[in-house]
Amino acid sequence: MSHPRNGSNEGGETGVTQVVDFKQVRQSRMEEKRRNTQRIFFKNLMSVYCVVGDHHMRPIELIDVSEDGCSFQVPFDGQNPWPNTSSDLPMRLYFSQDTYVPVVFRVQNSTTSIDNGVRYQRFGCSVDKTLSSYPAYEQFVRFLGAYSEHAHKDKGDVSVFYL
Known about the structure:
By secondary structure, the protein is an alpha+beta fold. It has a domain at 46-78 and 85-140: predicted glycosyltransferase like domains (Thrombin, subunit H, Beta Barrel). It contains two helices and nine strands; from the N terminus they run ββαβββββββα. β7 (88-94) and β8 (100-115) form a beta hairpin. α1 (22-44) crosses α2 (134-150). The longest helix is centred in the N-terminal third of the chain and has 23 residues, at 22-44. The N and C termini lie far apart (61 Å).
């Protein structure tokens, strides 16, 4: 919605002001903050692996998570494409060196992407909500949403004293 300004400018034209939807702007900023927070969390605090075969795991890079699924990427390998786009992918979300939450994703789509000059295969997946571990995954996603809303950047303005 726009309203004409009172009066006219020097050129004799009537100016138009724009109404800003602050709710939409806030939601957009919160979504970007949430995505940035997730990426920081995934790159620095947590490891994610796909179980391949009986005794092997393959690292993946999570991009985004939601209660319904996730997106992740792996370096592109034209000779050995992985994963199969119709397969269930048993994942391990490691929160420490020796503990993880098991989750199963199913690939829904894939695309290639370039990130910092490196070619990746990026996958969009749904999550298996029937697993007994799904409530833990769901709470993790909710935690990330709340964390991104309330987290503050450490500016180094407070000293730590060790006794």
